[in-house]
């Protein structure tokens, strides 16, 4: 049977665009449909604008630090309009880069929603049908609100970049990556930030000592963090929002932002009708090769809810092309993925937390927490953490956790060593780079704890 395309990709985010490009470079005839902006969550309403906001939010403290170092400069005010204008221009530029990648590689693009009609056919919003030998689902995910009375008054991370003006006060609900990152960003931009998290400590799943330090430092910086607290209901009061909390508190905020998780964009796509299995969270269920229950349909990225990170979606997209278009069956590798949480302070992590490692086998923990030179000289009391979790038996470093300015940059490099299976003694053999914060990672001689 002759198909219109060898590959039809649904979703123009990081995973979909990478798979489309690489497949096209292999000679495949490829099409891609995107109903919103090219670039997807990461580029348009996630990692990229978020990181630019992190940068913007850090300049206030830098002015204070510069004064402490002898600079005669005066703090100014942050102008949201100026920043937002530049941000929009940058996102336009990046979207054009993504469109250009597809165009230059001969990928046909359809700026509309596509749904699955059968195992080899997609139907576009305008009713057009296109057939393809393979279909790749890469629709990503979207934020969800918790479904409490009045939650329509709140915003999500999708909306934060489009605010007409920065609120004077905001309540952020949630304790995950997005909630904790935006608490730091908005606090740095001068917004009065309150954060409610229903659990005992933010950043559940990460190393306890590391997330404990992040949480302490966030409070030190002025974030009003309430643990064990959630919203019961919210209602409009003048131009503010009245929030009733589970601890009985009632407060008025200018804005409420929900960062209470994300769901896969797999609903209303005709997937189950053709036999693609969906999981409990609505995610597309795939095997180790990203293949769904329908052999011609594959899925990568957040829509599969495996490890919801852009570089992982890209790896999954490339492994899919290896498997399907290069005759080289390849499983994406989900082991030992380094990651950074752009809280203030930043946290970088790879491998097992102390708690998870301890469940697995006897370990040694090497940890040091100290005031780094640059901030200490400027009169700041902030602490950083460098931590290694080591297997007593194999001596391998099972986990590395860093809380420090630039932890994201550091963990990328430490991640190579951990991925290679480096032992504690390999770290010890490496000469320190002095004076740096990260030198502590190779100079910790005696274990802090064993067990
Ligand atoms: P997460 O799943 O990480 O966090 C959701 C938070 O909301 C949790 O603290 C959760 O609490 C809480 N929550 C869930 N439901 C409710 C509810 N009904 N009421 C109150 N609180 C609730 O989601 P995020 O949206 O923060 O991030 C999604 C994913 O995006 C991340 O897992 C990550 O993979 C990715 N991401 C990565 C970033 C990076 O690499 N720097 C940055 C941003 C996102 P509980 O812990 O109790 O379940």
UniProtKB/TrEMBL annotation:
Disulfide bonds: 42-47
Reactions catalysed: 2 glutathione + NADP(+) = glutathione disulfide + NADPH + H(+)
Gene Ontology terms for molecular function: flavin adenine dinucleotide binding; glutathione-disulfide reductase (NADPH) activity; NADP binding
Binding positions for FAD per the UniProt entry: 51, 302
Keyword Flavoprotein in record: yes
Protein EC: 1.8.1.7
Domain FAD/NAD(P)-binding as annotated: residue spans: 5-317
Pyridine nucleotide-disulphide oxidoreductase dimerisation domain ranges (all copies): 337-444
Cofactor(s) it depends on: FAD
Active site: 434
Keywords on record: Disulfide bond, FAD, Flavoprotein, NAD, NADP, Nucleotide-binding, Oxidoreductase, Redox-active center
Pfam families tied to this protein: Pyr_redox_2, Pyr_redox_dim
Top EC class, one word: oxidoreductase
GO CC annotation terms, alphabetical: cytosol
Cofactor: binding comment: Binds 1 FAD per subunit.
Gene Ontology terms describing biological process: cell redox homeostasis; cellular response to oxidative stress; glutathione metabolic process
Positions that bind NAD(+): 174-181, 261
Record InterPro entries: FAD/NAD-bd_sf, FAD/NAD-binding_dom, FAD/NAD-linked_Rdtase_dimer_sf, GSHR, GSHR/TRXR-like, Pyr_nuc-diS_OxRdtase, Pyr_nucl-diS_OxRdtase_dimer, Pyr_OxRdtase_I_AS
Function: Catalyzes the reduction of glutathione disulfide (GSSG) to reduced glutathione (GSH).
Family as reported in the entry's similarity comment: Belongs to the class-I pyridine nucleotide-disulfide oxidoreductase family.
Description of how the protein assembles with itself and partners: Homodimer.
PANTHER family, A to Z: GLUTATHIONE REDUCTASE (PTHR42737)
Protein name: Glutathione reductase
Organism: Shimia thalassica
Lineage: Bacteria, Pseudomonadati, Pseudomonadota, Alphaproteobacteria, Rhodobacterales
